[in-house]
């Protein structure tokens, strides 16, 4: 397989997904071609062996699964987890303000972005709105679909030490984004909702709320002498979502016979503690309902969890040779040298020696090279959905991810070969019969 083909598919996926809500809609649209059926959490579920299903919670988290023909208590669940959100900027409720003839939009920082990378970019705006529809409330996705906002940098003539001290932005005073100019002395009270109404085609008086994500409107691109690298926004972590989805939607995997699960959560970048985050009940609820619908109850359900295995897929820190002191010298992760097993003694990652070995074994079967990452001991280590989901469910888990440069920048970069490698090994995992518990000698 041409390794550029899956990356082009990834770039198209990201371009269609400027917010977590859009990412789930994009996934849902892809599932339609593979005969997946949508489930409602408020309805009773009737599941068939070999059936393909998905459930969405609050528009931006989705779990899709294939019910296996084999007994759950004997095979367990095969799960890949990732997240749909990325760090960045979100629009405040009372968004628009007028100062010195300029209309600006106030923002809150979501997660831990590299704020300086948002300056001097062509910024778009997308997300969802809540609106009144009859006696109820409905939601709709919106995307202005063009460069709408900007955060112009301060000229070096007024910030002489910027190259020595770095660009530092006050979150309250210096992050509001420029939208337009206005001759009036005062903004109409419905100014911003009227803008949303133009895009949503819904009367502004019916628009009650919004959650809007600021995104880079520049499309993803290949780069490098031989186009061996690619760059885009939201690679952390839509690249992992895309790899997992691509692995599952292969006919050999869909027909394999195990119960396969992909769980993509919102809110990872802010700790996952929400009704739809990985630290909530979503995955546990869905697994339990699959078990109930397949008559796997009581002790057999607990046996199925003990037989299960989860891959927590999130991007990994690639070695950048301009900053060698930032990396653990014996664990330099190299772009295009394969996916990374992430290890941390303090359980910031869920990997243990057995799950490491199992993932390495699947890489060997798939003829995929792999690497191991350990964080620099003098720096605090980030975390993933792996430890919390593993602890909640008692499922053996490994944390893996592809090498990434400039994690949490608005424009991240990775290696073309690595994306194809990850799809291959995730496909191998779905087709492999080994369970989550491994006997020791």
Under CATH, the topology of the largest domain can be stated as: Aminopeptidase
Unreliable stretches covering 5 or more consecutive residues: none
Give the fraction of residues assigned to helices: 25-40%
Per CATH, which architecture of the largest domain?
A: 3-Layer(aba) Sandwich
Distance between the termini: 39 Å
Helical run tally? 12
Reported for the largest beta sheet, the result is: 9 strands, mixed
Q: Mean of the pLDDT scores? A: 95
- CATH level-four homologous superfamily name of the largest domain: Zn peptidases
Percentage beta strand: 25-35%
Strand order of the largest sheet: 1-2-3-13-4-14-18-16-17
Structural category: alpha/beta
Number of discrete domains: 2
CATH C-level category of the largest domain: Alpha Beta
Number of strands: 20
Give the C-alpha Rg.
23 Å
What shape does the CA trace take? globular
Keywords:
9-stranded mixed sheet, 6-stranded antiparallel sheet, alpha/beta, Aminopeptidase, single chain, Aminopeptidase i, Domain 2, globular, 27% strand
Your description of this structure?
It is a single chain. With 441 residues, the chain is α/β, with parallel strands linked by helices. The protein has two domains: 4-86 and 233-431, Aminopeptidase (3-Layer(aba) Sandwich); 88-216, Aminopeptidase i, Domain 2. The chain is 27% helix and 27% strand. It has helices spanning 4-15, 20-32, 72-75, 162-165, 191-200, 235-248, 251-254, 282-293, 299-306, 353-365, 386-393, 416-431; strands at 37-39, 52-57, 61-66, 77-83, 88-99, 102-110, 123-133, 136-143, 177-181, 207-216, 221-223, 229-232, 259-265, 309-313, 316-317, 340-342, 371-373, 396-401, 403-405, 412-415. The protein has a nine-stranded mixed sheet, with helices on both faces. A six-stranded antiparallel sheet has the order 8-7-10-5-6-9, with helices on both faces. The longest helix has 16 residues, at 416-431. The protein is globular and about 70 Å long. The protein starts with a helix and ends in a 10-residue tail after the last helix. The model has no long low-confidence stretch (mean pLDDT 95).
């Amino acid at each position: 397989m041409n390794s550029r083909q899956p990356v082009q598919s990834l770039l198209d996926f990201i371009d269609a997904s400027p917010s977590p809500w859009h990412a789930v809609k994009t996934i849902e649209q892809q599932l339609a071609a593979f005969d997946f059926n949508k489930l409602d959490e408020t309805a009773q579920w009737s599941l068939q062996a070999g059936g393909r299903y998905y459930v969405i919670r609050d528009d931006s988290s989705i779990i899709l699964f294939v019910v296996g023909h084999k007994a759950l208590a004997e095979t367990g669940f095969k799960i890949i987890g990732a997240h749909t959100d990325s760090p960045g900027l979100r629009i405040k409720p009372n968004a628009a303000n007028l100062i010195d003839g300029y209309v600006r939009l106030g923002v809150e920082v979501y997660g831990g972005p590299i704020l300086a990378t948002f300056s001097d970019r062509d910024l778009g705006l997308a997300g969802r709105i809540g609106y009144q529809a009859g006696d109820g409330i409905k939601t709709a996705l919106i995307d202005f679909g063009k460069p709408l906002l900007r955060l112009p940098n301060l000229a070096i003539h007024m910030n002489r030490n910027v190259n020595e001290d770095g660009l530092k932005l006050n979150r309250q005073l210096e992050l509001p984004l420029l939208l337009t100019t206005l001759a009036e002395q005062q903004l109409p009270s419905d100014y911003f909702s009227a803008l949303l109404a133009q895009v949503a085609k819904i009367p502004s008086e019916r628009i009650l709320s919004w959650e809007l994500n600021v995104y880079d409107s520049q499309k993803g691109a290949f780069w490098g002498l031989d186009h061996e690298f690619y760059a885009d926004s939201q690679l952390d972590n839509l690249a992992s979502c895309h790899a997992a989805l691509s692995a599952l939607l292969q006919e050999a995997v869909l027909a394999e016979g195990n119960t396969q699960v992909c769980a993509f959560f919102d809110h990872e970048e802010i700790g996952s503690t929400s009704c739809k985050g990985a630290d909530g009940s979503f995955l546990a609820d869905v697994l339990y309902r699959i078990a109930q619908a397949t008559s796997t109850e009581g002790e057999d359900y607990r046996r199925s969890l003990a037989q299960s295995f989860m891959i927590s897929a999130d991007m990994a820190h690639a070695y950048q040779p301009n900053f060698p002191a930032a990396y653990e010298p014996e664990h330099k992760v190299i772009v295009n040298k394969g996916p990374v097993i992430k290890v941390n003694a303090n359980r910031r990652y869920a990997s243990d020696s057995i799950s490491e070995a199992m993932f390495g074994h699947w890489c060997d079967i798939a003829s995929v090279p792999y690497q191991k990452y350990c964080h620099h001991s003098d720096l605090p280590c980030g975390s993933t959905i792996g430890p919390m989901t593993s602890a909640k469910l008692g499922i053996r888990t490994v944390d893996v991810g592809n090498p990434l440069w400039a994690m949490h920048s608005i424009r991240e970069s990775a290696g073309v070969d690595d994306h194809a490698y990850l799809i291959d090994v995730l496909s191998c995992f779905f087709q492999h019969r080994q369970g989550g518990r491994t006997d020791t000698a």
